[in-house]
Design a protein that fits this description.
Elements lengths: L50 E11 L2 E11 L5 H7 L4 E9 L14 E5 L3 E6 L2 E15 L2 E14 L11 E7 L2 E12 L8 E11 L4 E10 L2 E9 L4 E6 L5 H12 L11
Antiparallel strand pairs: 1-2, 2-3, 3-4, 4-6, 5-6, 6-7, 7-8, 8-9, 9-10, 10-11, 11-12, 12-13
Length: about 270
């Protein structure tokens, strides 16, 4: 593995920082907005995201020029709902690597898709048995028809007792704000050993709903038995996990296949001609 050193340039006086000795940035920027970083950055909610103690340096790795951003994001305004939910400090340190297109630190860079991510992970219990682990706060910067959008969200690992025990880390979630409520969606392609049954594998697992003041989570998944798909739908509550299985058709052969899938011993069906 090659080890590359950072190639640093001084930030211009326009940004309020001087670093003529070509050393890492030590003077920090406050009241910083993304429009101070990106040129001609059109976003309707840009004033909702203010940074302090911002430092920016330049990196060149394998011919790719990037800006390394580090700053403290104020957790007020649009972010207050996330601060309350996480029980975080009034600011969270975030970092991002941004394609600079060869621009120097004395210039604003062309707007580009980027994700600003908290440098410290959080751990949040939704209720007993359901936990958000390795949780990061992110600002997702992307372009849409009306300009540039800045979407705050939480991402990480969704852990449910008896559902994800055998496949910890496989189920990922995104949590966003909608109409002053926190909405979560968690997905896993498949989960083995569901409900404590070693041979039970659920496919296309999704949990979605609201968290925070109200915790309401719905679960959907599939259990494939031969050519038959059983739909497992239910709810997760602080008291229990309630699941109902359904299928468009289910015969004796499906029942035998179900026993074989779960136990591995199979079910002997006795057929009598009448």
């Amino acid at each position: 593995m090659e080890i590359h050193t950072l190639e640093l340039e001084p930030i211009s006086a326009d940004l309020g920082v001087s670093n003529s000795n070509q050393e890492p940035v030590t003077d920090l920027l406050n009241n910083f907005k993304l429009s101070d970083l990106f040129d001609d950055f059109n976003s309707s909610n840009i004033d909702d995201f203010i940074f302090d103690d911002v430092s920016i340096s330049k990196s060149s790795v394998n011919g790719v020029n990037s800006l390394l951003f580090l700053g403290s994001l104020r957790m007020d305004g649009a972010l207050a709902i996330f601060e309350d939910y996480l029980g975080s400090e009034s600011s969270i340190v975030v970092a991002a690597t941004i394609n600079s297109g060869g621009a120097s630190l004395s210039e604003k860079v062309k707007p580009t898709n980027a994700i600003f991510t908290s440098v410290v992970a959080f751990h949040k219990e939704i209720f007993k048995g359901v936990t958000l682990v390795e949780t990061s706060l992110e600002l997702d910067i992307s372009k849409n028809e009306g300009g540039w959008s800045i979407v705050p969200r939480l991402t990480g690992v969704f852990d449910v007792n008896l559902l994800t025990d055998n496949d910890e880390g496989y189920m990922r979630f995104k949590l966003t704000e909608k109409n002053n409520a926190l909405m979560i969606t968690a997905n896993a392609k498949n989960l083995n050993g569901a409900f404590g049954i070693d041979k039970l594998t659920l496919d296309s697992v999704t949990v979605q709903g609201q968290v925070g003041a109200v915790n309401s989570l719905n679960l959907s998944s599939e259990f494939i038995i031969g050519e038959t798909a059983l739909n497992f739908n239910g709810i997760l509550t602080p008291d229990n996990m309630s699941i109902v299985a359904s299928a468009t058709s289910f015969g004796l052969n499906d029942l035998a296949n179900l026993f074989n899938e779960i136990s591995g011993t199979g079910l002997m069906l006795l057929l009598h001609m009448i």
